[in-house]
Design goal:
alpha+beta; Immunoglobulin-like; eight-stranded mixed beta sheet; eight-stranded parallel beta barrel; 20% strand; Glycosyl hydrolase family 13 catalytic domain-containing protein
């Protein structure tokens, strides 16, 4: 079949000639027809922190692309709505069925942004997808239904669910129409003038009516009984479904092909018990909007709990089977580390492969996988035990579900020659060239490219086929719990790696095309989260997310979830997940759901910004309005394990500490990187501007240290008494948003962007010593560790970890991501980082890597580890560092070096407990009645005097007195004058012991 003729097209290619995402390839362009191939952008086209760029109301850093293949009949190419409109504005799109601009929102209403005047509107349907736009209108229909225009507005519940179309006009579907069967067809709505001329036509988006008619709460996936195995699949638009049963994980012919029966959108089949342990795929016959054809899609089960290697087939695995449970698994809840309050949490972020891929104390057969965490005497486990004994509570694992771009079968991997790379100069570009040459064929990827959410990743298992991955994942969780660490999973429900009817990594979009993925006004997939945004505002998407979370909590006994790009998920969905988890009990589920912690990235950008698709789980939405309101009203006085709180990352503290943002100039300095005190050559502005920048940064940090509470009152650098919510970022957004301290996750570095040591090495002047850079690394970490709220640490920051200044190491292989738990090296200067995301900064990076004075010695690494352990010990030495409620922080936390006359570069915080002369406070700490912490970012010693702190009996914390850091021991307090002396680039903790 030929390509549909589109008259008089004018199309400009100039906008793509210099695009950083040059992934559109134009195969044929004429004045009458054209076709465009589209290349699927990878998740990796943007780092997660690049989404924060959008949250700062700055321009999108790169154009979006669609992942729609071209169909012979209709154009399905461009996904950027504004760009598409600009390029084709001169074309009359009469009969444009390539787009889906109308919405069937419930059984009786279709919404469309058209004015038909005195004309008519019709719904066309073709079961065999034969609708064609011609000069005379639409042809090829089986059914034509006249719609009645409604002079009113869309129903309130429709507007609430789809606020982005609230101004669309409603058209009534007449009663008696067989809607359920129509939804299995290719559909279009057409407006026709009174004279019979077709003036507009478009396809339809169906999630609203599918939710209205087919929302379902019954069983899905594989259900096992003593006699049978039953399969249930929600697919209301499918025309026919068969299941292919296989004995083997790949190859061979099916042992059975069985048709499924449909009841109200749910297809099911009941098979023999002998199916257990077999593999299966679904064959789904369904109209697909990507190709405008009725396609035969081969798909895995969206509710898969097991897979063959690389997700070729779904495994029929019964997670309740004793053979895939390690010994004592059912009683693991009784062995969980104690957790008294969410405020007691501290989090350590780690990638499974990083942990052991280069640890030679781990058996080579299990390096880089789940079982490495069961190697009790490995260097990595010994390191984790040190952190746990100092107080660390939670280990956050980067994605562990089935993701794309790492083959599950290790024999398929390619490797670099480590010895040859080690022999190259430290600033050479050859290392990155060799690494990137095989980066899609090695064993490394962060994993933010989900294929199936509910199955452990096969590449981390010793055998990716069968149930091995389930057993080994459970052994990992059990082993970590037994050394005292709770386990957090990084979940990525905001997008999927694949879409369309035929891609190997597409699952959900094959089963119910156009439902699971969020679409633009034109019907193209939204890609603001990288690619293939999911739509949790749709009932069955939300249900799948909640069901998946419960599976990981109950069947794998994990202790928390970190939601990637949580702001792209609806707040309602997050609350349902939270409530579902909190309903879990040891007696009924073997899990205490009240102690499962949920947090995520609450950035507000893309199509969901400002509640564009409903109330989303952004920072201000989850911490404001009705959530947590009870705390500010003192109805509920403890934030111990609240069912009403969700928790988000505090990017304000990160940016104030290190300077700028991930999207500004890489030399922009901050509080700990030398702003004002040690210029690095970057033009920050006039002296007065720089001083104000430093003062504002100190305000931001102090607000964050007080739990980022929006109602916490402090004195600003201008001398005004302000609330945390009245302190503003550079774009006018409030710094503070929390109502409870554990709502805030404080961090200065994470897997995204440069490591802490790298960013300090980049932003500080080149002529300072490595000793000074190490002290700044410790200073930044100390602010996170000693603040109110939940501290979050990137694995390796305590070891001065470097990625050779790579700002986005998601696919940079083991070479740039290496961890060394022997403390011999921090991986600094192992070559210029990969060209793709770093080349623009190579002129800054190259001289630093080439300078041997930048490289820490083993003694520096050992000192950094000790300093970090001491920070944890001090945090857990007193409950005053872990206050649980807003009231406790309001009453006890004060900042002293504030106002216009404050000492620049110095933050002084006190935390007060009940003591003589201070009635009204409840005693929390049996050891200390008062704590003062001074953070000095200056390159010189600073003395600070406060009349409010006179006559106290303060001494340097015993842990610091006994530490190997000789500099901190010069810290001093003079009770007579209330003066503190703090050494350069040092955090000094003073405590007042209780009288015995």
């Amino acid at each position: 079949m030929g390509i549909t003729k589109i008259p008089s097209i004018s199309f400009s290619l100039s906008s793509y000639s210099s695009s950083p995402l040059s992934s559109l390839f134009f195969s044929t362009i004429t004045n009458s027809s054209y076709s465009i191939k589209s290349f699927h952008p990878r998740h990796s086209n943007r780092t997660h922190s690049e989404f924060q760029f959008l949250s700062l109301n700055q321009p999108n850093p790169s154009p979006k692309l669609i992942n729609k293949p071209l169909n012979n009949k209709f154009l399905h190419c461009l996904t950027d709505v504004s760009m598409a409109a600009e390029e084709v504005s001169s074309v009359d799109f009469q009969g444009d069925l390539s787009r889906s601009r109308a919405y069937w929102v419930n059984e009786s209403v279709i919404a469309w942004d058209v004015d038909i005047g005195d004309g008519s509107c019709y719904l066309y349907a073709s079961e065999t997808a034969n609708l064609v736009a011609t000069g005379n209108g639409i042809e090829g229909d089986d059914i034509k239904v006249k719609l009645e225009p409604d002079s009113g507005c869309l129903p309130a519940d429709v507007i609430e669910k789809f606020p982005h179309i609230q101004h669309y006009k409603p058209f009534k579907v007449p009663p008696g129409v067989d809607t359920k069967n129509l939804l299995k067809c290719q559909l279009a709505v057409v407006s026709i003038q009174a004279d019979g001329q077709c003036i507009n036509a478009t396809g339809l988006q169906l999630p609203g009516v599918l939710d209205d008619l087919f929302s379902y709460g019954g069983p899905l996936g594989a259900v096992f009984s003593e006699e049978a195995v039953s399969l249930y699949l929600w697919a209301p638009t499918a025309q026919a479904i068969r299941v292919h049963i296989y004995r083997d994980p790949c190859g061979g012919s099916p042992i059975e092909i069985v048709g499924l029966d449909e009841v109200n959108g749910v297809w099911s089949v009941h098979g023999p018990k002998s199916w257990e342990g077999c593999y299966y795929v679904y064959e789904v016959s369904v109209y697909h909007y990507c190709t405008s054809l009725v396609e035969t899609c081969i798909a895995n089960d969206p509710y898969a709990r097991g897979l063959s290697a690389d997700g070729k087939r779904t495994l029929l695995v019964n997670l309740s089977c004793d053979s895939i449970k390690p010994g004592g698994w059912d009683m693991l809840s009784d062995e969980k580390p104690e957790l008294s309050s969410f405020s007691d949490i501290s989090i350590y972020e780690l990638h499974i492969r990083d942990f052991s891929a280069n640890d030679h104390t781990v058996n080579p057969d299990i390096q880089g996988g789940y079982l490495a965490f069961t190697s009790e005497d490995s260097a990595g486990i010994r390191h984790l035990k040190k952190l746990q004994s100092a107080g660390l509570t939670h280990l956050h694992l980067l994605p562990t579900f089935q993701f794309a771009d790492v083959a599950d079968e290790k024999e398929k991997w390619k490797f670099v020659d480590v010895e040859s790379l080690a022999a190259l100069p430290p600033d050479s570009d050859e290392q990155q060239a060799q690494v990137t040459a095989i980066q899609d064929e090695d064993g490394f990827n962060w994993g933010y490219n989900p294929v199936l959410w509910g199955v452990p990743k096969g590449s981390y298992a010793t055998n990716p086929n069968g149930s091995c991955r389930t057993l080994e994942f459970r052994k990992m969780v059990q082993s970590l719990n037994r050394i005292g660490l709770r386990v957090v999973l990084d979940v990525v429900y905001n997008h999927l790696h694949g879409s369309g009817p035929h891609g190997d990594n597409s699952v959900l979009d094959k089963v119910v095309p156009g439902y699971y993925l969020r679409r633009s006004f034109d019907g193209y997939i939204e890609n603001s989260t990288c690619v293939n945004n999911t739509a949790s505002e749709h009932f069955m998407v939300e249900r799948l997310i909640v069901d998946d979370i419960l599976c990981w909590a109950v069947d794998y006994k994990v202790d928390g979830f970190r939601f990637d790009l949580m702001g792209h998920i609806m707040k309602r969905t997050m609350l349902k997940a939270q409530n579902a988890l909190r309903s879990l009990t040891k007696d009924q589920s073997g899990v205490d759901g009240t102690k499962i912690y949920i947090y995520g990235e609450g950035w507000d950008f893309g199509e969901v910004a400002k509640n564009g698709r409903g109330v989303n789980a952004s920072q201000f939405n989850i911490c404001g309005t009705s959530i947590g309101r009870q705390y500010s009203q003192n109805i509920f006085t403890s934030c111990v394990f609240s069912s009403k709180c969700l928790f988000s990352f505090n990017d304000r503290m990160r940016d104030a500490l290190i300077g700028g943002s991930p999207f500004g100039h890489p030399l922009q300095q901050g509080f700990v990187t030398g702003l004002s005190f040690q210029p690095n050559g970057h033009d920050h502005g006039a002296k007065i501007v720089v001083e104000k920048m430093l003062s504002a940064s100190q305000d931001h940090i102090q607000v964050a240290m007080a739990g980022n509470l929006r109602d916490f009152v402090l004195t600003s650098h201008q001398g005004e008494e302000v609330k945390g919510s009245e302190v503003l970022t550079h774009d006018g957004s409030p710094v503070a948003y929390a109502l409870c301290p554990s709502e805030t996750v404080n961090y200065v570095s994470a897997h995204d962007n440069e490591t802490l040591f790298d960013i300090i090495s980049l932003k500080t002047p080149m002529d300072i010593s490595v000793d000074e850079r190490c002290r700044l690394n410790h200073l930044a970490t100390s602010i996170i560790a000693l603040s109110q709220g939940v501290p979050f640490f990137h694995c390796g920051d305590e070891m001065l970890r470097s990625k050779s200044l790579d700002r986005d190491s998601y696919n940079s292989g083991d070479w740039f991501n290496r961890l060394d738990f022997s403390y011999e090296t921090n991986n600094w200067a192992v070559g210029l980082p990969p060209k793709g995301k770093n080349e623009r900064s190579w002129p800054l990076i190259k001289p630093r890597l080439a300078d041997p004075s930048f490289k820490p010695k083993k003694s520096h690494i050992l000192a950094a580890v000790e300093n970090y352990l001491n920070l944890l010990r001090m945090r857990y030495s007193s409950p005053l560092f872990r206050l649980r409620t807003e009231n406790e922080i309001q009453e006890r936390v004060r900042f002293h070096n504030t106002g216009p006359s404050s000492v620049p570069g110095l933050i002084v915080m006190s935390i007060e407990d009940s003591h003589k002369g201070r009635p009204g406070l409840t005693q929390l700490d049996p050891n200390y009645s008062y704590i003062v912490v001074a953070f000095n970012a200056n390159p010189r010693e600073v003395t600070f005097t406060s009349p409010a702190l006179r006559t106290r009996t303060l001494d340097l914390h015993p842990i610091q007195l006994m530490s190997g850091d000789e500099v901190v021991k010069y810290s001093n307090y003079n009770a007579f004058t209330g003066s503190f002396t703090v050494p350069p680039r040092t955090t000094s903790v003073f405590v007042e012991s209780r009288e015995i």
